[in-house]
């Protein structure tokens, strides 16, 4: 098939989804937020007290989890067994547990399978941690995003604060640092730059500048 895949990987909260959404909108590609899938699985595991060391329980749980995206407006709208969970998956209980859940091999195998299906025949922009390395090693364009950790925490804090009056900048910073540590050191598909991924450090770039940078890389494949 000759569909185009744009893979965007990088650390937590460095603007991957903002860029991915802007690209999808501009190019009329499908946007897939792979992190939302791991978050929704985490929510299910928390609600159902799934023990991360119990492989049988995990396998059963994965069979009972049905995720769907409704990307009508290039935002992440995800349902977990037909329940809209897009807001709840951003809250701290999920953020604090998602890296442990996503380190479980069975979870990754199932999510990767679903993600590959979504990018099989359609033009997609997918963001995550292992998109350019594991999910789509042959993606036409791979970006690896990074930004100063303090800037990242401030950006994420501004996003979360309006809906979470109790949240502190410190707490957000710690969560990002902790997730980055877990994501880069885990056994299964650790976060790492694919050899052929282009680095995009956006510490000093506006969203428009990032969009232009990425469009220039994708243009030759359109
Ligand atoms: O992208 P987001 O920060 O919402 O992802 C939440 C978590 O899901 C990450 O910290 C990481 O542990 C996990 N994840 C992953 N692989 C992906 C996307 C997300 O392990 N492709």
TrEMBL record:
Cytidylate kinase domain location: 6-218
Catalytic activity entry: CMP + ATP = CDP + ADP; dCMP + ATP = dCDP + ADP
Q: Which GO terms describe its molecular function?
A: kinase activity
Q: Where does ATP bind?
A: 10-18
Q: Which Gene3D superfamilies does the record match to this protein?
A: P-loop containing nucleotide triphosphate hydrolases
Identify the EC number(s). Answer: 2.7.4.25
- Its main localization is cytoplasm
Bilayer-crossing residues are none
Identify the NCBIfam families for this entry.
Answer: cmk
Query: What family does this belong to?
Result: Belongs to the cytidylate kinase family. Type 1 subfamily.
Q: What is this protein called?
A: Cytidylate kinase
Classification from the root reads:
Bacteria, Pseudomonadati, Bacteroidota, Sphingobacteriia, Sphingobacteriales
């Amino acid at each position: 098939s000759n569909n185009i895949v744009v893979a965007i990987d990088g650390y937590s909260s460095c603007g991957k989804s903002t860029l991915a959404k802007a690209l999808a909108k501009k190019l009329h590609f499908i946007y897939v937020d792979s992190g939302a899938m791991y978050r929704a699985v985490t929510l299910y595991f928390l609600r159902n007290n799934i023990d991360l060391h119990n492989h049988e329980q995990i396998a059963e749980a994965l069979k009972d989890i049905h995720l769907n995206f409704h990307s009508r407006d290039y935002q992440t709208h995800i349902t977990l067994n037909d329940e809209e969970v897009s807001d709840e998956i951003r809250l701290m209980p999920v953020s604090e547990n998602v890296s442990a859940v996503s380190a479980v091999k069975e979870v990754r195998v199932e999510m990767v399978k679903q993600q590959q299906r979504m990018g099989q025949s359609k033009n997609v922009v997918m963001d995550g941690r292992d998109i350019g390395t594991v999910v789509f090693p042959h993606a036409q364009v791979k970006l690896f995003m990074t930004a100063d950790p303090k800037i990242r925490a401030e950006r994420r804090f501004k996003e979360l604060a309006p809906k979470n009056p109790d949240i502190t900048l410190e707490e957000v910073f710690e969560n990002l640092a902790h997730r980055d540590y877990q994501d880069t050191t885990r056994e299964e598909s650790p976060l790492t730059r694919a050899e052929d991924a282009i680095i995009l450090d956006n510490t000093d770039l506006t969203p428009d500048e990032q969009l232009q940078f990425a469009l220039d890389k994708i243009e030759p494949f359109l």
